Known about the structure:
Largest sheet of chain B: 10 strands, mixed
Protein name (chain A): glycerophosphodiester phosphodiesterase
Distance between the termini of chain B: 50 Å
Family (chain A): Belongs to the glycerophosphoryl diester phosphodiesterase family.
InterPro entries (chain A): GP_PDE_dom (IPR030395), PLC-like_Pdiesterase_TIM-brl (IPR017946)
Number of strands of chain A: 12
Signal peptide (chain A): 1-17
Oligomer: heterodimer
Radius of gyration of chain A: 20 Å
Enzyme class (chain A): hydrolase
Largest sheet of chain A: 10 strands, mixed
Number of domains of chain B: 2
Amino acid sequence: xxxxxxxxxxxxxxxxxxxxxxxxxxxxxxxxxxxxxxxxxxxxxxxxxxxxxxxxxxxxxxxxxxxxxxxxxxxxxxxxxxxxxxxxxxxxxxxxxxxxxxxxxxxxxxxxxxxxxxxxxxxxxxxxxxxxxxxxxxxxxxxxxxxxxxxxxxxxxxxxxxxxxxxxxxxxxxxxxxxxxxxxxxxxxxxxxxxxxxxxxxxxxxxxxxxxxxxxxxxxxxxxxxxxxxxxxxxxxxxxxxxxxxxxxxxxxxxxxxxxxxxxxxxxxxxxxxxxxxxxxxxxxxxxxxxxxxxxxxxxxxxxxxxxxxxxxxxxxxxxxxxxxxxxxxxxxxxxxxxxxxxxxxxxxxxxxxxxxxxxxxxxxxx
Amino acid sequence: xxxxxxxxxxxxxxxxxxxxxxxxxxxxxxxxxxxxxxxxxxxxxxxxxxxxxxxxxxxxxxxxxxxxxxxxxxxxxxxxxxxxxxxxxxxxxxxxxxxxxxxxxxxxxxxxxxxxxxxxxxxxxxxxxxxxxxxxxxxxxxxxxxxxxxxxxxxxxxxxxxxxxxxxxxxxxxxxxxxxxxxxxxxxxxxxxxxxxxxxxxxxxxxxxxxxxxxxxxxxxxxxxxxxxxxxxxxxxxxxxxxxxxxxxxxxxxxxxxxxxxxxxxxxxxxxxxxxxxxxxxxxxxxxxxxxxxxxxxxxxxxxxxxxxxxxxxxxxxxxxxxxxxxxxxxxxxxxxxxxxxxxxxxxxxxxxxxxxxxxxxxxxx
Lengths: 367, 366
């Protein structure tokens, strides 16, 4: 009966890119993934683009600072170059977070791109597509990353080149080895996002999910068992196809990202995801609930009932939504019941979590 | 009664100014000042421009340079008189023959260089050309940024702060983000090396048009701090810039004497908990601070370090405890964190975790 239901669900959903069994076979479920939740019992701190509140987005500096700040994960977004190299950048085009406009040898490669699906939107205007360049070209030309917000520090702009996924993996392995974090059961890992999956597949004939899998395999990180020991890995995406691909190849935990412009079927999602990464608004307006700052989120409760962890995005100390200061804001998210934060200020978020934890312990002691 | 002083000074010292005439003496925001100790040195190498930049964007009210002097009289921003602990100088083999020992121990200050490289034995140009780089003094703060950033002269720090304030002004701030400058080893430089570091500092400030409160309030707020009273006395004979007497717990201080030449005190934090036979507690105002306030002095204790907490298990409780003592400012190595907590406690009257104890002095907590 369950199988039939899933078949029906499959038919209802978008034409999918990957052949997959009618019933997605779970190679694993959350109880079998040692690092699915923070063994401390407190929420995970996932550094969105690294500590990009202070350092350029996705620079090695952002990842290192986040590491020393005590983050549990750094969070690379993946694009692909012309020669199939996995390139860490949030945008599919390069103007916003690099110095590419200064590299005039590339003036003639400016282009426009528009690509929409029901899961994601891509819009580049007079911009430079990562996929139109080889990795070596960009490095040789002196491409450097910079912070995307005008109000954040620009001191480090144009100092750091972008990274390949391999560079990030090696950086994390190295940091964990040379400066292990005390009192941690697991190493500080990578929470990896595949972006523009269908664009790359349909328009450029590139299977980004497959390249990612191959890279993980090269580093011996493609199973939960290996990742648990070597470097914890999560796979996230707005595009379900890449998660389905992963679920057919490995038992690594997958996370479906959710934005408020689309409809989602949580039951269907739970058939291929170990967790969800919703925009934070989902915690406040789900299923007709009344807006409040002090009760657990219905959305999160529903996800937990479906055995999915919830990691909302994005927590930004300098762009607060529900309160006037970063500590109140973090506490509000905590009250909602989050299992992790995508944050751009990992040190700050950890402060609040440690304070909450101290409060909890003292209250338990006095009871 | 007091230490033999190096400077001739009028007796009694005439305070050219008092706190009401120093516009930036207190933080107009109503929360304690956040003074970034060696910059944002919790995350970046001590006294690097990067550390100062990060602290600036983190919202610190001041960056805090320590001064040493090179052989050719250049004011260099560095905490130690010798360079092993915060630079890569040991890797620069061309200097191997300049290793030396030096010790200073007075009732005001102490340093010890063992088989080390004294800043004052090098010219500035030598240091620059050698590829000298700064690094974090604590290994656990990370090595990622070690060997990237060169040391600064005071002039570089001043230029840098003027530039940052100009290009990226902080919103909703009455005053620019300033410099809280420490003269170190004043006696050592004067007696052993015949260099007057306070005078050199005054001249640099004058060169930048920052040597009076009026100019500093407009251009770049300046505090002058020292463990050694002489340098503060010197300044009080030359200018109306605010002076702060640093205090450590191995010395007795006559607060009435201190207030005759200092606008503020910078005590080690332990002195907020054990002054004048007070009973140790975590949430009552400090007797030392009360006394200083009576004498017209602001109090800025040192040093808050999120990764080396003293009174609590987490940063927020630690900051609440310090704040409850009645501080007017804090030297911190994690300015973003400290500022965030101060803003929060200011608006929330929050409780020390797990207790009913209200930590703010005036009102009762909700």
